[in-house]
């Protein structure tokens, strides 16, 4: 997936770092795809950067939002709330979630080789 | 690596999402370890969360800092500046770097099974 290119700051980031339980997938992959799809439909969603989960079960997803109101609305969205509850019940060993105001941003793209 | 546990907000996050070039490692892994070690020695460094690079060469590292002054000092650190130049010259196909003020944070740890 290419990196998100966004309008100029300020905007908000939700930094979600998580470690999966050792259990089987148990619906996790399907939920993750569905939540990404659903987030992208929300008012104020700007984009997200996400890595595949590494060998230690750790992954980081950063989603970007126009403002805090958009983040709060997404937090309260019904299907998302159900997925969060399932996450705590069975999918995640641990996670941290941080809400941050993006103040500066820089991009780099390698020039095409001549 | 366990997830970073930090003091209460506010503090700052540097969100670095990058895609590697298809080239050989060419010193990249060694540099990455050295930069993590060096960052951890800086005044105002609080911690970092980082995933292994996935199959598409993408990785996300989020480092946490006490304040913007600490981030600026790290940006100017000589060895780090050299590594950033090398990154643009040969290691990265593209990257985005965002500086954000963390305003709220939540942790979850699965209770030990009885």
UniProtKB/TrEMBL annotation, chains A, B:
<dbReference type="InterPro" id="IPR007138">
    <property type="entry name" value="ABM_dom"/>
</dbReference>
<feature type="domain" description="ABM">
    <location>
        <begin position="11"/>
        <end position="99"/>
    </location>
</feature>
<dbReference type="Pfam" id="PF03992">
    <property type="entry name" value="ABM"/>
</dbReference>
<dbReference type="InterPro" id="IPR052936">
    <property type="entry name" value="Jasmonate_Hydroxylase-like"/>
</dbReference>
<protein>
    <recommendedName>
        <fullName>ABM domain-containing protein</fullName>
    </recommendedName>
</protein>
<dbReference type="InterPro" id="IPR011008">
    <property type="entry name" value="Dimeric_a/b-barrel"/>
</dbReference>
């Amino acid at each position: 997936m290419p990196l998100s290119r966004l309008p100029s700051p300020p905007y908000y980031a939700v930094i979600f770092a998580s470690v999966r339980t050792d259990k089987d997938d148990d619906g996790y992959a399907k939920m993750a795809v569905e939540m990404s799809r659903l987030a992208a439909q929300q008012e104020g969603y700007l984009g997200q950067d996400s890595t595949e989960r590494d060998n230690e079960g750790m992954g980081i997803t950063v989603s970007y939002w126009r403002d805090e109101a958009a983040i709060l609305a997404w937090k309260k969205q019904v299907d998302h709330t159900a997925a969060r509850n399932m996450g705590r019940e069975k999918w995640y060993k641990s996670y941290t979630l941080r809400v941050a105001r993006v103040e500066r941003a820089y991009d780099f793209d390698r020039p095409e080789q001549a």
